[in-house]
Amino acid sequence: VIPYSGTFLIFSDYLRPALRLAALMGVRAIHVLTHDSIGLGEDGPTHQPVEHLAALRAIPNLNVFRPADAVEVAECWQLALERRDGPAAMALTRQNLPTLRTAYTDENLCARGAYVLADSDGDRRATILATGSEVEIAMAARTALQAEGIPTAVVSMPCWELFEAEDDAYKATVLGSGVRVAVEAAIGFGWEHWTGNDGGFVGMTGFGASAPAEELYEKFGITAEAVADAVKARL
Prior knowledge:
4-stranded parallel sheet, 9 strands
């Protein structure tokens, strides 16, 4: 028997004691946490999680998955089912997202926590790190930067915990040695571990607001243009 739950990510606040104990005891349980950002839209800031990803990532022995498309959802679900020594939290969007992984591979790329989704055309000068619904934004920013002659790679990071467990050589290959900018529709707490002190972050700095998702992303500056500008400002 594999116990699972389903609710909005915002309500992980009420779920936290059970999540923490499952992590402490090494119990497999899977929590499907939807409506995971300001993309929730019109329900407003009371139901828009901004600090919750950071709070969940702070729990030891909890694998927090935030997949970018249907392919990553399937891969992360497999990893959650196969794990027998701790719980998993699946953070999923409300809004529709494009399929970014269109090339077939036998390998479960999410199993290493992060991977290069789109490599740079030319010697990499910048790396954009993203999770979930913001990987689409990272890809658009990469297109713009490449058009300006700035070789840029996009790294999808569906599970920080699995990536942290990888060896230093793999992490260095994925993260690159150039400018790093992260984008996530949440508070940036913790991202500096991956971007470094000189890196950038595009995301939330406070609570959300009530409006359609696309308007909120514009209002809070979580756009491909903002990501590209953050990269160029650090070159």
